[in-house]
Design goal:
This protein is of the alpha/beta class and 271 residues long. The protein has two domains: 27-105 and 224-268, Periplasmic binding protein-like II (D-Maltodextrin-Binding Protein, domain 2, 3-Layer(aba) Sandwich); 109-218, Periplasmic binding protein-like II (D-Maltodextrin-Binding Protein, domain 2). The protein has helices spanning 3-12, 38-51, 64-72, 85-93, 142-154, 164-170, 179-187, 235-246, 248-256, 264-268, and strands at 27-34, 55-62, 79-81, 97-98, 103-107, 109-114, 134-137, 172-176, 193-197, 209-213, 222-229, 260-261. The strands form two sheets. Strands 1, 2, 3, 4, 5, 11 and 12 form a seven-stranded mixed beta sheet that branches. Helix 2 (38-51) links the parallel strand 1 (27-34) and strand 2. Helix 2 (38-51) packs antiparallel against helix 9. It is elongated, with a radius of gyration of 25 Å.
């Protein structure tokens, strides 16, 4: 409002109206997270937004390798949650994350088959049967690396042929860039079987697929580390989100989504 207009209003006895205060800009915390965390982290995002009014959580879910490479190319993020240590080490080596990178959850592998099971996959040995169509994640994807490690261990398990892993790999018809794509291929009947994380067999998915357990001695324990990104646009909210994930409430949410939470002792060892 100009000085002249203020003077005119004063002479007329009209009070000057102060300009409205600008609304505070909404804050957002951007979380890059492994695809297998989709359902659990979306729930945690809703919890976080209730606790921090005015702050929204934006997620980018993909294979950990894709997210790490995007970060290396300058993609902005506040938090990185990987499905293995390999890709967390990659971003650490490039100076992209700061502080501790604690493990906040663990996972296990399972074999999935369509509910209709047209190939009659009844045992793990059937994955190596000639003509079985198997879909796996690519080797650079954490679940793909874990899968190949488990197949090698099964090849030394009693009752399995010594070339079991090579037989299964010979039946692979597609290699996917993230675990959700493996689930989708099997769910749609585009493959006879796949290997995914236990947490990926969600209630919605379980209507269409069945699980085959992998023996404990041959299974692989996947570990999920988390970190605040060094150049985080919203570092404070990033640290708060990491704290939520590692809190008792966060661990309960992860457990409800079939992850194995870390112990209280482990959580305390990474302040």
């Amino acid at each position: 409002m100009t000085i002249f207009l203020r003077a005119v209003l004063a002479l007329l006895g009209v009070p000057a109206i102060a300009p409205p205060l600008a609304e505070p800009a909404p804050r957002a915390v951007t979380v890059f997270a492994a695809a297998s965390l989709t359902e659990a982290f979306r729930e945690l995002g809703r919890v976080f937004e209730r606790r921090h009014p005015g702050t929204t959580v934006q997620f980018s879910f993909a294979g950990s390798q894709q997210l790490a490479l995007q970060m290396a190319q300058g993609a902005p993020a506040d938090v990185f949650a990987s499905a293995d240590q390999r890709w967390m080490d990659y971003v650490k080596d490039k100076g992209l994350v700061e502080g501790e990178t604690p493990v906040f959850a663990r996972n296990r592998l399972v074999v999935i088959v369509p509910k209709t099971n047209p190939a009659r996959i009844a045992t793990l040995e059937d994955l190596g049967r000639r003509g079985s169509k198997v879909v796996l994640a690519a080797e650079q994807v954490p679940v793909g690396a874990y899968t190949r490690e488990a197949l090698k261990k099964l090849a030394t398990h009693p009752g399995f042929p010594p070339d079991y892993d090579q037989r299964v790999l010979g039946n692979v018809v597609s290699q996917e860039e993230n675990v959700k794509s493996v689930v989708s291929k099997v769910q749609l009947g585009e493959a006879d079987a796949g290997i995914v994380y236990r947490s990926d067999v969600t209630p919605a998915v379980s209507r269409y697929i069945s699980e085959l357990e992998i023996p404990e001695a041959s299974n692989i324990i996947a570990e999920y580390p988390i970190a605040v990104v060094k150049s985080a646009p919203n570092a404070e909210a990033a640290r708060q989100f990491v704290d939520l994930v590692r809190s008792s409430e966060g661990q309960r949410v992860l457990q409800a989504h079939r992850f194995t939470p870390v112990s209280a002792t482990e959580a305390a060892s990474h302040p």
